[in-house]
Amino acid sequence: MKFSRKGLEVNNISWPRLVMIFIALSMFWHLLYVRLSDNTRHMVIGSDAAGYYAYLPAVFIHHDLEFKFCKEGEPTKVDAFGANHHFFMNRTLEGKQINKYFIGTSILELPFFFGAKICAQWFGHPKDGYSFPFQAGVAIAGMFYAFLGLDQIRKFLIKKNIADPTIALTLLLIYFGTNLYHYSVQEPGMSHAFSFCMVAVFINQVHNLVHKQNPKAITGAILSFTMILLIRPVNGVVIFAVPVIAGSWPALQNAFSIIRAQLVRFGVTAIIGVALLFLQLLVWKISVDHWFADSYSGEAYDFTNAHIYNVLFSWRKGFFVYTPIMILALIGVYNLSSWFTRISFIIFFIMNVWFVASWQLWSYGGSYGMRPMIDTYAVMAIPLAFFLHSNKNRLLKAVKWLAAILLMVYNLIQIYQYAIGVLPYDEMTWSKYKKIFFETSRHYSCIYDPGSLRMHTMPQNSVMIGSKTRTFEEDSSAGHTSFWGINTEKAFSGKHSARLDTGNVTAGLNLLFRENVPDTLFRYTWARIKAKVFLPEKTLDAKLAVQFLDSTESYGWEAPPLWFLIDKTGEWTDLQYDVKLPIPKSSNGAINVYLYHADKSVAYIDDLTIQFWVEPH
Questions:
Q1: Of the chain's two ends, which shows fewer C-beta atoms within 10 Å, N or C?
Q2: Whole-prediction pTM value?
Q3: Alpha helices in 177-262 (DSSP H)
């Protein structure tokens, strides 16, 4: 791109720069039309992001590192979504409250915070740290650092003599083909875009030191590594990527020689780095009166019990399931320049996964994919670029590029599913995943509760204490038993089943709790619903209804679609559904199970059974 007498000429712009412009435009489109829309603009600062950010209003507005302005019942409490200590406060072993998150993210947000503070004053918004300008400031900060990190990758790959079209595609894949996209525009206050950027800066500075013999890179490497530690200390594992950048043992030795020749520069920068790290200790001292504090008290690493398989392959959060483009990056290790580089990368990847998988809560709470891996995508971009760059066979290279683009589209579909609630933020399983595969209709939104696996999985070693079955062969004079939809058209056993069609419900099974469960066991009791079901075709509107009620009201009801509970349509198949019993509200509390629809869907049910199970207690 250049200016001439004819005006602005864009014919000389490189493919990587063109992609960077496209990414920037997409970021601002999402910022203006999605992230800062009327419904969600007040929620940019929330969840973990509230904790990373809270240091800024605490220091520069409220002068309160005990975070009383975030605590319920305090007269200084700020009335804002993100100003809620439940998002981020933890208790030390001494019982003192502490912000569990580190200060690195807030340091990088600082310029945007001051910009927001000025805008709040100019445009009359509350200057409490949580009004619209501050929300926008955090959103722009996350986008900025993601963009800066991508630009650092661009510069690094240019130095590795990767062709411009390949660099352009690599940038597209790292951004749109991974969960970095989500965590830079939809949840920009989380730490991942910030860590991603600092890691990208670090590997660039290491490259400049090793291969350009630039002594100024010592300063850049130390300061960026310091920020990596201040954002999330465990990301210090990126130090294992230094041999990958060096590419050979002699090059690594040469880098140490340059450092020895620049001891003054190294020492001064190291002192600055230590001073930055000291800020975290100072915050702890002011907050809880200790220079060192375990802000994650109750959570810990267990390096002897790493959940490596789950982190990489599980349907719940597996790295290769939700970021499959990284499979190509691992294949690309073979295309790296030397065995030293290949082995060094494998060591780095193993160490990184081991650290991520050793965290006690290996799923990392509500998230799209394995979000801690985002922090080191700048390193993963290296073998990915070499995978796309290699091979002189045009046909094979075209196949590689097509596969990469398809995986990028696949990721974008999943991100859209996550955004509209089709893909829940936790507790995904294979049986759920295959039911929503490529489904993008909002009719599928919130079909799966992200906590349903936890809530509706009966504990092991539970004991059955009672059971009742209805075969629909019963005499119609059998008292309170319903007979809606009893038919002889189709049956699994006997001559009858219950048919769901013209009415909204079918005949079902209603059982009083106290006739089946002793009072002392209510809080430990589960109901297991078992039946034979015939669903002629895939439909979301034929549902299994489970209702808890007494003589006056219904006090609990859920209706998962049959299609999500069975494996096959067009034939009789087994259904099993577990649900925790609520405490009855009266002496005649009951459970009622039946089929339900709102659109005249057809379904059949036979041999309906309710079992009562008691969990160990």
A1: C
A2: 0.84
A3: 180-185, 192-212, 216-231, 242-246, 249-261
